TrEMBL record:
PANTHER family: ABC TRANSPORTER ATP-BINDING PROTEIN ALBC-RELATED (PTHR42939:SF1). Keywords: ATP-binding, Nucleotide-binding, Transport. One of its GO terms (molecular function) is ATP hydrolysis activity. InterPro entries: AAA+_ATPase (IPR003593), ABC_transporter-like_ATP-bd (IPR003439), ABC_transporter-like_CS (IPR017871), ABC_Transporter_VariousFunc (IPR051782), P-loop_NTPase (IPR027417). Pfam families: ABC_tran. Residues 2-232 form the ABC transporter domain. It comes from the Bacteria. This is ABC transporter ATP-binding protein.
């Protein structure tokens, strides 16, 4: 699970994340939403250990990221929104390399790597250099690398970017099965239909703060009607876009 207590990140006088408290339990697929600049990616990079918090505590599967960073990171798989990969490795070599970062190697890693490559239709390219992969293929390889060491927690930023419809469906099914087995997924996305259809709970960030959190039913009850997630999201994060558009078109 993920436990966040009083988490903050400041850049000089600017506060990107302000005193965030959040628990994502085992077995939950949590959707993390917000407009650009709301603090979502900053939060997820702090959870992944890429950014150092200004204040607060992060626990991954019970391990304090500050006091026991290696144990916390062993329990975590991180899927960024941009697939940066060592291009002079083959697809299979990259999965072995990724597993090796967590102290895993040998036939079991190769077997898991083969299964993941086959799952995303990458098996024919297992021995090809990553530099020859398309953007979508790289994204699928990054996703595979996050699962290869069997983490308890997956943190994923915009998982569907660059994926074809078949791969998107496979990933959705993979996330659902992963949480069904008692693991945790925290997913940031701008695709509200994906969040509404997949997530057990949804949190909405605005200006570095969590302004709403709960199931779709909880969010609808708080809004006082049965609105779709898009309407709730726009109401909470500012619904002036339509008015601005009309002003532009009428100018």
């Amino acid at each position: 699970m993920i436990e966040i207590t009083s988490l903050s990140k400041r850049y000089g006088s600017f506060t990107a994340v302000r005193s965030l408290d959040l628990v994502v339990p085992a077995g939950e697929l949590f959707g993390f939403l917000g407009p650009n600049g709301a603090g979502k990616t900053t939060t997820m990079r702090m959870i992944a250990g890429i950014l150092q918090p200004t204040a607060g505590i992060i626990r991954i599967a019970g391990h304090d990221l500050r006091d026991a960073p290696l144990a916390a990171k062993r329990a975590l798989g991180f899927i960024p929104d941009r697939p940066f990969i060592y291009e002079k490795l083959t697809g299979m070599e990259f999965l072995r390399f990724s597993a090796g970062l967590y102290g895993q190697e040998g036939p079991e890693v190769d077997r898991r790597g083969e299964e993941l490559l086959a799952l995303f239709d990458l098996e024919p390219w297992r021995d090809e250099l990553v530099e020859s992969y398309s953007h979508g293929m790289r994204q699928k390889l990054i996703i595979a690398s996050a699962f290869v060491h069997r983490p308890k927690v997956i943190v994923v930023d915009e998982p569907m970017v660059g994926l074809d419809p078949k791969s998107s469906k496979i990933l959705k099914d993979l996330f659902r099965e992963y949480t069904r087995r008692g693991h945790t997924v925290m997913m940031s996305t701008h695709t509200l239909e994906v969040a509404e259809g997949m997530c057990d709970r949804i949190g909405i960030m605005q200006r570095g703060e969590l302004v709403a959190c709960g199931t779709m039913h909880d969010l609808q009850q708080a809004s006082g009607n049965d609105d779709a997630l898009e309407d709730i999201f726009l109401r909470l994060t500012g619904d002036g876009a339509a008015r601005d558009l009309m002003e532009v078109l009428d100018a």
